[in-house]
Structure prediction request, 168 residues.
Amino acid sequence: MSKNTIAVVQLSPGEVGYYDELSRIHLTIGHPSEAVEAGTNCTQLRRSVKSGRLRLVSGSLGAEVPPFKFVRDGSRFVLTKNDETAPSIVVAKPKETVAEVKAAAEEVKAAEVKAEEVKEKPATKAKKAKKEETVETPAEEAVASEPQKAPKKTSKKAKKEEAEKAAE
Prediction:
């Protein structure tokens, strides 16, 4: 093994091929073993060795790295992805203060209220115009205020009797 090689992996017996996207290692029957260089993301290689798809011929792939970790951000902890190649998390401080955010929220509310007032004015004018156009006379109001009765449902016999009475 050279100075940059940390391990050598090989296909397990019965396996035809293997490819790992993270480490870019491609193994086939014609090329069954490969050296793992330092700085390579070995997460998937560790899982494959553990499951039996690959054999670790020499060296070490390092300790198992949990998929997530907690990073302290001031007075709180943040759950972040824990990759071997992931750079450290940089959390930017907010540029706006609470007072600035509240002032912006008040401006938005004021703009919404103005927009609602503008929408309401044309509608109320139209309603007033309709009321002025449809002025009912007292007779029409009396007819309109009386509840209208639905016609009675009558049987065929009752209809015949009514027709006979009307004919007489």
Observations:
- The chain has a mean pLDDT of 75.
- The chain has four helices and seven strands.
- Residues 5-59 form one domain.
